[in-house]
C-alpha cells in the first residue's frame, strides 16, 4: 500500500502470477448471461458502477496494441540445471504448512475481514471491508494445490458487493493491487468465470476514479465527489499510485476486449513519458508528482516507498504487451541508467562483500545521495535481473544479482536473521571494492543505524531471490531463502499465524498485532515457488505456448494442475491436514464451565514472554506452563499462571481484556485465579507465588480502572513481601546467587509499584529502600535487561523516601539539594543500551519523579516565572512534557503500550499539573518562550493516553474534561511528530548518567 499507520508509504508487488507471465493469456470475455459456473454462484453488486454518469468523458479511446507479439529472450535457466531433491521438497512442504496455519486462522477468526490480527486472533477491516486477505490469497491457494480452500474462498469472493463499504473513499492503488489483481490472477490460474465477472465489476468502480478534468486519477476514489463530478487529480501524490495501475487495467482490457481500461492508464503513461527528462534528475521521476497540473517539480528521487512499483512495472509491461510497445523499454533503459549512476551504492564492509543497495537522491543545487535504504527497495534486484534478461542487457542481470545478494546479506547481518524496514549503511566512493574505514565500531558492521527496525512480513527480498534462482538455477539462492524463512518463522510465529515484529536487532523483540495480506499472497508464495520445480509457474511458459490469437495451447494452468495433482497423490488431503491436537491454540476446544483449558494458558503465557517480560522479570513462563501441565493439583501454580495471564491481557489491552465470561478473557482468568486461591488456603501460604499472585491481580485491576480493588491486592502483596522478610538484607546472606536475585527482583518490583501507587494517591509507602540489588548475571534475563531493571531500582533508591509521599510535618529540603536532584534526573545516557520498552520505562519514570520534585518544591518555595530557572520554574512541567514527548516520538507504539496503566498514570499526572498552570497562566497554552506551547503538549499527551488506554480511559476522560473547561481547542498535534527526530536524538545524547 502507499500509506500505513506510521504514515510511511509501502509497496506491494503486483500479483505474482502477473510477474511470472500468467497475464499473457488473452482469454475470451465471459458471456453476459452466465450466472452459475462450476457450482459457484455469482452474486452481483447492488450498484452497477458502469451506469454512473461521467462528467469528463474521454474524447477518444486508445485501442489495445494488436500487433503480433515479439519473441522475447528466455528468462529461466534450462530445465536440466534444476535439482528438486527430497530436502528441497521438505522445505516446500514446510512453507505450505506455514501458509495453511496462517490461512486457517484467518478463516477461523477473521473470515471476510480484510486482515487477521495474528496476536489477538481478531479480524479488522482497513481496505474497504472487502476481504482483502481472502481475495489477495486466491492464486496462492491454487498454486499450492489447496483446491477445497480455493473453492470455498472463490465462492465467498463471488458474493462481494463493491457498492457496500463503511468508508467514504477507497485507496485507488491498494484496491487495484490487492482486490483487482487478486481476482485477475486467480481467474488466470483457475479459469473460474465468476472471478472475472467480479473483477469486471470492480474495474468499473475503479474506472470512475479517472473521471477528472484531465483524465488522470486522484489518490483516493471519493464516492461523493465521483457522484457530483468534483474529482480532481492530486497535486502532490505518490508517483507509484497512478503509475502502478497499468498492469491490472491493461490485463482487464485484454480479457474483456474493452479498451477503456487500457486507455485510462495509458494516459498516465503518456504523462510519465512527457515528464521523464524534464525533472530535477532527468531520466527519473520524483517521489511525488503534480498530476493535476502535469508537473514533476519535487526534488526527492528513490526506488523506495511512494515510487517503487512505478519502476518495477516498466519491464513487466514490456512483457505483458509482448514487446510491441517500445515506450516501456525506453522508459526502463533511461531510468535505470540514472539509477545506476546516482542511486546505487556499494556498502563499506570489513569483508568487502560484492553487494549493492539503493539509496535516495535529493536534488537542490546538486544531486546528493543519502544511503538510507529500505526493505521496499529489495524488489530492485528482481527488476534489474528480469529487465536485463528480456531486454538483453547482461549488465543489468549482474546488478540485479548484487542487489539481491545485498538484501540476503542484510537479513543475515541482524541477530534475528531479518532485515529492518529502514536503515543506513556506510558506503564506498564507487561501486568497486574499498577498505573498511570507520571512526567508531558499528553493529552490525557497516550499518550506521536501523532507523525503523521493524520487520513487516514483506515479500520484496524473497521475490528478487526467487527470480535470481529461476534465472541461474544456483541452489545457493535456495539456501539463502531457507535461512530467511526459518528466521522469519522463528520470530514472527504466534499461536495463530505470523505477526510483524518491532525490532530485528533484538532477539527478545515484541510482535505487532498485524499480518498484512501480502504475507499469504506474496511472501509465502515466493518461498513456496523457490522450492518448487521450475515449470510450476514458469517465467517462460507463455513465450513458448502462445496461439495465433494470443490464447494458450498447452498452458501453465494445466502444468500447475498436473503438478498439484501429484502432490495430492503423495500427501494427505488438505481437509485432513488440520492439527487435531487439543493443545493447539489455533483450534481451541469448547471451554468447560469455569475452567480454562491448558492451551489458553499456553497462548497467553507465550504472549507474556515478549513485551512484558522486560518489566516483570520474575517468572519464567515456560517453566510455569510445564509445572501446571504436569501437576494438575498444584493450585497455587495454576493461580499464579491465571493471574499472570489476566495481567498480560489487561496490561497490553488485548481484545480479550474484560471480555464476557463465556469467552477466554482477562476477566475469566482473574475469576479462575480467585477460585483456585480458595483451594489451597492462600492466606496461610508462605511462598514467592503468594507475593506475585496479588501483585498481578493488582496489575489486572489497575488496567481495568478498579483502583481501590487494585490497591487492596497491592497491600496484600506488600504484606507477603514483609512476612517473607524480603526487605531485610540479612535474608539474602545464605541464599544461592540465583535465589538472591529472584527474591530481590520481586522485592524491588513490588517496592517500585507501591511507591508509584502511593505517590498518586497520597498514601504512605511501607516498603523501605535497601542497599541490595539483583545481580546482572541472571539465568532468567540477559545482562542488558538486568542492567535496565537495576537502573530503574536506583532511581527510587537515589531519592529519599519522603519525596514520594508528602506530610505536613516533614522538613523542607535545601534549595541546592533540589537543584541537584533535578539535574541528576535529567541524565539518561545509559538508557540507550536498554531495550526499547525498558528505555521508555526509565525515561518516563525519571520525568515523573522530576514532576514529583517540582510539586514538592511548589509546596515549600516561591516559584519563578522564568522557564530557564529549572527546579524553581513555574513552567518546568512544560519542559518535562516536551522532553517526555521527544522520546515518545522516537519509539514504537508497542513500547509505550507495554506499560499500560503505569504509563497512563505518569502521563496523566504531568498533564494534570500542566492544566493547573494553564488555568493560572493562560498565555502558556500558546507557546510562551517554550519550543512548543502547553496546549500542543497537552494535546499530544492526550494522544498518548488514548493510544494506551483507548477512549474508555478514565485518565483520558478527566484530561478531556479539564481541557474543554479551559477551552483548549488547539488542533491535535500527534505525539509522533512533536519534534524532529534528529533534535530529539541530540537532546537525549547530550544527557549524562544518573
**Strand-pairing-aware structural class:** mainly alpha
Look at the structure and give the mean pLDDT.
83
Distance between the amino and carboxyl termini: 44 Å
Q: Using only CA atoms, what is the Rg?
A: 30 Å
Beta strand %: under 5%
- How many domains would you count in the coordinates? 3
Strand order of the largest sheet: 9-12-13
Fraction of residues in helix: 40-55%
Low-confidence parts: 1-37, 542-560, 566-594, 804-809, 927-932, 970-994
Biggest β-sheet: count, sense, barrel? 3 strands, antiparallel
CATH class of the largest domain: Mainly Alpha
CATH fold-level assignment of the largest domain: Glycosyltransferase
Q: Name the CATH architecture of the largest domain.
A: Alpha/alpha barrel
Number of helices: 35
- From the spread of the alpha carbons, the general shape counts as globular
InterPro entries: 6hp_glycosidase-like_sf, Glyco_hydro_47, Glycosyl_Hydrolase_47, Seven-hairpin_glycosidases
Family: Belongs to the glycosyl hydrolase 47 family.
Biased composition (Basic and acidic residues): 555-571
Cofactor: Ca(2+)
Q: What would you note in describing this structure?
A:
It is globular and about 90 Å long. It folds into 3 domains: 91-435 and 443-506 and 513-532, Glycosyltransferase (Alpha/alpha barrel); 583-724, no CATH class; 811-994, no CATH class. The two termini are 44 Å apart. It has 35 helices and 16 strands. Mean pLDDT is 83; it is low at 1-37, 542-560, 566-594, 804-809, 927-932 and 970-994. The chain has 994 residues and is mainly alpha-helical.
Amino acid at each position: 500500500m502507499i500509506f500505513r499507520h506510521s504514515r510511511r508509504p509501502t509497496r506491494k508487488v503486483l500479483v505474482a502470477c502477473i510477474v511470472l507471465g500468467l497475464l499473457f493469456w488473452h482469454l475470451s470475455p465471459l458471456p453476459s448471461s452466465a450466472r452459475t459456473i462450476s457450482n459457484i454462484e455469482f452474486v452481483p453488486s447492488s450498484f452497477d458502477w458502469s451506469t454512473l454518469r461521467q462528467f469528463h468523458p474521454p474524447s477518444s479511446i486508445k485501442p489495445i496494441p494488436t500487433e503480433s507479439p515479439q519473441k522475447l529472450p528466455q528468462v529461466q535457466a534450462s530445465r536440466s540445471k534444476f535439482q528438486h531433491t527430497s530436502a528441497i521438497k521438505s522445505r516446500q512442504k514446510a512453507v505450505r504448512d506455514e501458509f495453511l496455519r496462517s490461512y486457517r486462522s484467518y478463516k477461523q477468526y477473521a473470515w471476510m475481514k480484510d486482515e487477521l490480527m495474528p496476536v489477538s486472533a481478531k479480524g479488522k477491516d482497513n481496505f474497504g471491508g472487502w476481504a482483502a486477505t481472502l481475495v489477495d490469497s486466491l492464486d496462492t491457494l491454487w498454486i499450492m494445490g489447496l483446491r477445497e480452500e480455493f473453492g470455498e474462498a472463490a465462492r465467498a469472493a463471488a458474493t462481494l458487493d463493491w457498492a457496500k463499504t463503511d468508508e467514504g473513499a477507497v485507496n485507488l492503488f491498494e484496491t487495484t493491487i490487492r482486490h483487482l489483481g487478486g481476482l485477475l490472477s486467480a481467474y488466470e490460474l483457475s479459469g473460474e468465470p465468476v472471478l472475472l465477472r467480479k473483477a469486471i465489476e470492480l474495474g468499473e468502480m475503479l474506472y470512475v476514479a479517472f473521471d477528472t478534468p484531465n483524465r488522470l486519477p486522484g489518490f483516493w476514489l471519493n464516492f461523493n465527489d465521483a457522484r457530483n463530478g468534483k474529482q480532481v487529480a492530486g497535486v502532490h501524490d505518490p508517483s507509484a499510485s497512478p503509475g502502478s495501475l497499468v498492469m491490472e487495467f491493461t490485463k482487464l482490457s485484454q480479457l474483456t476486449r474493452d479498451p477503456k481500461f487500457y486507455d485510462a492508464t495509458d494516459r498516465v503513461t503518456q504523462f510519465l513519458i512527457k515528464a521523464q527528462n524534464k525533472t530535477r534528475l532527468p531520466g527519473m521521476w520524483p517521489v511525488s508528482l503534480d498530476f493535476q497540473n502535469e508537473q514533476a517539480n519535487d526534488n526527492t528521487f528513490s526506488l523506495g516507498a511512494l515510487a517503487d512499483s512505478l519502476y518495477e512495472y516498466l519491464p513487466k509491461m514490456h512483457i505483458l504487451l509482448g514487446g510491441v510497445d517500445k515506450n516501456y523499454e525506453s522508459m526502463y533503459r533511461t531510468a535505470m541508467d540514472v539509477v545506476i549512476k546516482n542511486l546505487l551504492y556499494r556498502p563499506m564492509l570489513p569483508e568487502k562483500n560484492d553487494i549493492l543497495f539503493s539509496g535516495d537522491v535529493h536534488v537542490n543545487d546538486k544531486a546528493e545521495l543519502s544511503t538510507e535504504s529500505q526493505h521496499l527497495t529489495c524488489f530492485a534486484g528482481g527488476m534489474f535481473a528480469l529487465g536485463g534478461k528480456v531486454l538483453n542487457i547482461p549488465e543489468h542481470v549482474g546488478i540485479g544479482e548484487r542487489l539481491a545478494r545485498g538484501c540476503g546479506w542484510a537479513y543475515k547481518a541482524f541477530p534475528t536473521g531479518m532485515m529492518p524496514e529502514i536503515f543506513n549503511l556506510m558506503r564506498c566512493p564507487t561501486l568497486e571494492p574499498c577498505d573498511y574505514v570507520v571512526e567508531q565500531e558499528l553493529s552490525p558492521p557497516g550499518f550506521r543505524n536501523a532507523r525503523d527496525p521493524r520487520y513487516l512480513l514483506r515479500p520484496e527480498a524473497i521475490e528478487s531471490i526467487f527470480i535470481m534462482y529461476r534465472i541461474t538455477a544456483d541452489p545457493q539462492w535456495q539456501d539463502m531463502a531457507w535461512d530467511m524463512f526459518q528466521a522469519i518463522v522463528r520470530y514472527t510465529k504466534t499461536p495463530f499465524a505470523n505477526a510483524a515484529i518491532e525490532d530485528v536487532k533484538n532477539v527478545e523483540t515484541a510482535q505487532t498485532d498485524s499480518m498484512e495480506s501480502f504475507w499469504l499472497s506474496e511472501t509465502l508464495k515466493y518461498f513456496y515457488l523457490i522450492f518448487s520445480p521450475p515449470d510450476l509457474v514458469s517465467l517462460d511458459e507463455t513465450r513458448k505456448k502462445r496461439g495465433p490469437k494470443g490464447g494458450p495451447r498447452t498452458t501453465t494452468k494445466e502444468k500447475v494442475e498436473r503438478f498439484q495433482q501429484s502432490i495430492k497423490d503423495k500427501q494427505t488431503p488438505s481437509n485432513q491436514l488440520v492439527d487435531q491436537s487439543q493443545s493447539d491454540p489455533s483450534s481451541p476446544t469448547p471451554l468447560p464451565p469455569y475452567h480454562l483449558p491448558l492451551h489458553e494458558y499456553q497462548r497467553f503465557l507465550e504472549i507474556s514472554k515478549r513485551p512484558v517480560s522486560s518489566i516483570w522479570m520474575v517468572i519464567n513462563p515456560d517453566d510455569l506452563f510445564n509445572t501446571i501441565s504436569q501437576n494438575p493439583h498444584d493450585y497455587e501454580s495454576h493461580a499464579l499462571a491465571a493471574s499472570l495471564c489476566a495481567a498480560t491481557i489487561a496490561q497490553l489491552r488485548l481484545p480479550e481484556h474484560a471480555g464476557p465470561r463465556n469467552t477466554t478473557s482477562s476477566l475469566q482468568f482473574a475469576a479462575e485465579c480467585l477460585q483456585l486461591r480458595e483451594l489451597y488456603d492462600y492466606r496461610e501460604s508462605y511462598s514467592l507465588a503468594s507475593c506475585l499472585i496479588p501483585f498481578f491481580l493488582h496489575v489486572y485491576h489497575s488496567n481495568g480502572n478498579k483502583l481501590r480493588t487494585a490497591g487492596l491486592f497491592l497491600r496484600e502483596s506488600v504484606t507477603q513481601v514483609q512476612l517473607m522478610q524480603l526487605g531485610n538484607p540479612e535474608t539474602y546472606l545464605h541464599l544461592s546467587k540465583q535465589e538472591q536475585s529472584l527474591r530481590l527482583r520481586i522485592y524491588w518490583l513490588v517496592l517500585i509499584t507501591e511507591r508509584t501507587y502511593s505517590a498518586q494517591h497520597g498514601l504512605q509507602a511501607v516498603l523501605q529502600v535497601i542497599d541490595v540489588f539483583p545481580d546482572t548475571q541472571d539465568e532468567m534475563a540477559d545482562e542488558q535487561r538486568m542492567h535496565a531493571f537495576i537502573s530503574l531500582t536506583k532511581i527510587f533508591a537515589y531519592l529519599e523516601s519522603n519525596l514520594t509521599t508528602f506530610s505536613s510535618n516533614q522538613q523542607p529540603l535545601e534549595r541546592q539539594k533540589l537543584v541537584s536532584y533535578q539535574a541528576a534526573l535529567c541524565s539518561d545516557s545509559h538508557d540507550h543500551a536498554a531495550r526499547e520498552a525498558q528505555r521508555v520505562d526509565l525515561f518516563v519514570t525519571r520525568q515523573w519523579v522530576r514532576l514529583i520534585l517540582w510539586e514538592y518544591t511548589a509546596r515549600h518555595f516561591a516559584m519563578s516565572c522564568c522557564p530557564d530557572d529549572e527546579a524553581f520554574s513555574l513552567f518546568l512541567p512544560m519542559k518535562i512534557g516536551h522532553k517526555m514527548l521527544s522520546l515518545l516520538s522516537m519509539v514504537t507504539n508497542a513500547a509505550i503500550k507495554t506499560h499500560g496503566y503505569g504509563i497512563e498514570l505518569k502521563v496523566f499526572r504531568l498533564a494534570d499539573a500542566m492544566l493547573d498552570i494553564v488555568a493560572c497562566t493562560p498565555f502558556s497554552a500558546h507557546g510562551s518562550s517554550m519550543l512548543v506551547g502547553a496546549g500542543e503538549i497537552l494535546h499530544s499527551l492526550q494522544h498518548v493516553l488514548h493510544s494506551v488506554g483507548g477512549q474508555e480511559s478514565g485518565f483520558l476522560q478527566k484530561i478531556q474534561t479539564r481541557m474543554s473547561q479551559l477551552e483548549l481547542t488547539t488542533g491535535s498535534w500527534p505525539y509522533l511528530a512533536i519534534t524532529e527526530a534528529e533534535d530529539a536524538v541530540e537532546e537525549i545524547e547530550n544527557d549524562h548518567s544518573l
